[in-house]
Amino acid sequence: MDGSSRRDSLVRRRSWCCSFAVPPSSPDSISAVHHSKPIRRTKTDPVSKPISNSVPNSPQSAKSGLGLVGRIDPRRILSPGRVSPIDSDPTVDSVQEMGADLSAAADSAPPAVRSQSFRAPSERFRSQPESSSGSGRNVFDVRLNLRGKKGGFLVLELNSGVLCANSEVFAGLMDDCRKGALSRGSSGSKICRIEVPEVENLAMFRETIELMFEDDITKRLLRIGVYRAIDVLEVSAGIMFSKGVLSCLKYLEAVPWTEEEEEKLRDLFTRFKFDDVTTKDILARLYLLDSADSQQNLSRQLVWSITSSTDANARNELKMLVKGLLCKSSVYEKDHPDLNKEDIYAICQSCLDSLVSLFEETSGTVSPKRLVKDAGKPLIERISRQVDNINWLLDILIDRQMAEEFVDMWANQGDLLRLHENASPMVRYELSRVSAILFIAMGTRKLHCRTESRSGLLLAWFGPMLLDFGWLQRCRKGLSMKALEEAMGQALLTLPLKQQYVLFMEWFRDFSKHGTESPNLSKAFQIWWRRSFLRGSETNAIESR
C-alpha cells in the first residue's frame, strides 16, 4: 500500500514538472536567485575600456550644465531604447561585467529605494533586434551613463541620429566620440558611451530625453503639469534641445501658474538667457516694464479710488486688500520703492477738506458750492466714511513710519476744533476717533515725533477727547477703550511736567464730574504725582538751574 502511494506521488510530481518549461516562481526559487553571488570580473578580463565623453554639470552648480534636484534608484534603468544593458554583440565577459554591476548596485542600495527597471512608455521606444547593417531609430548606438549629484545612476541606450538631431550639446559630444574612436583605431565599436556627471534630477533628465522621441510634446506636457514642465524646460535649455524649449515655453505661456510655480519660473529666467522673441509673452506675465514708476502710480490710483468709493462693503474689502499689499510686512513687497509720501498726504488733505465741509454742513454755514456731491446720503454716514478713510491712511503712514507730519497736520485743524464745539455729540465724536489712533500710536511707541508736535496734539485734542469718551465707548467701531486709556496716560507722561500738570488737572476735574464717561488715567496720574512731588527737591534744583 505504501509502495503504491509512493509510486503515485512520483508520477504526479513528474507530470507537474513536465507541464512547465521552467519551475514556477516560488518563495524558495526567488530567494535562491536573489542571494546568488554576482560574478566579478578579475584584472585579467579582456574587456576593453569604453569610449566615454563628459557633458557639463548641472546648470545650478558652478560648473553649469544639466539636471535638476532629485534622486533615482541607483540601479541601471534603460530608456527609451533597450531594456537590457547588454551591447549589440555581447561577449561573455561583457555579460559578466553587466551582471556584476547590476548585482553590486542592487545589494548596496537600501531596500526602500530599489525599483523595477524602467520600461519605455510606448512600442516605439522598445528595443528590437539589431542587425549589423541596421539603421534608423531601431539602432541604439549611444549609451548615456547619468550619475546623480546626490547618488544614484541611470543608463539610457539611445539612437545617435535622434539624439544629435535634437540636442546640440550631444551632437558635439557624439562627434568627439567618433573622432576619438577613429584615432584609437576602434572604428568597429558600435556603442558610444557618454558620461554625464552630477545630474541633479535623474527623472527629469530621462523625461526630457524621452520627449525627443515624442511626436506631440505638448500632449506629454499636459500630462506632467506645470511644475515638472519647468524642470523639463531647464534640462532642455541645458542640453540645447530647441524643440523641447519651444514646446515648454508655449505650454507654460498658455496656462495659469501658482505662486510657487511663478517663483520657480522667475528663478529659471534669471539663470538662463532665452531668445527674446520666444519668451516675450512669458516675460510680459512675469515683469512689468517701468515697474518703479508704474507701481507708484498704481498705488496712488488704488488709494484714491478707495477713499472716493461710496459702497461701504466694497470699500472695506478693498481697504484690507490694499493695506495688506502696501504694508511693510507684506509678503508681496520685493524690490518696489516706498510709497510716495506726498501723494498720500495729498489724499489725506483732501479727506480733511471734505470733513471740514461736512461739519460746516451740520452747522448750516457751508456755501452751496462746497456741498459734497453725494449729499443724498445721511450726513452722519458721510462723516463716518471720511473718518474711516483718514484712519485707514493713517494706519498705512504709521506702518511706513511716515506719520510724523500728520501729527502737526491734525494739531493745526483749527476749523475742525471750532466746529467740534458746536456740533452734536453724536457727530463730533467721529473726530476723536482720529485723535484716538494718534494717541495709541504714541503711547505704544509706534509713532515718534518731536516734543512740540506731541504738545500741540495733546493741548489741542485732549479736551475734545474727554468730551467724546462716553460716545466712543458706546460706538467703538473696533476701538479698544482699554488700550486707548493706557496710551493716553503714556502719551501725557512724555510731555514736560508743567504741561502734564495742566492736562492731568483737567482730566481730574472731568473724571470727578462724569466718572466712567471719562477715561480712567489713575495709573498715569500716580506716576505724574510721584515724579512731581515726591522728588520735588530734585525737580526744583533742575528748574532753578
Automatic annotation (TrEMBL):
Coiled coil: none annotated. Pathway: Protein modification; protein ubiquitination. Residues 50-63 have a biased composition (Polar residues). One of its GO terms (biological process) is protein ubiquitination. Residues 103-112 have a biased composition (Low complexity). May act as a substrate-specific adapter of an E3 ubiquitin-protein ligase complex (CUL3-RBX1-BTB) which mediates the ubiquitination and subsequent proteasomal degradation of target proteins. This is BTB/POZ domain-containing protein. It comes from Parasponia andersonii. The lineage of its organism: Eukaryota, Viridiplantae, Streptophyta, Embryophyta, Tracheophyta.
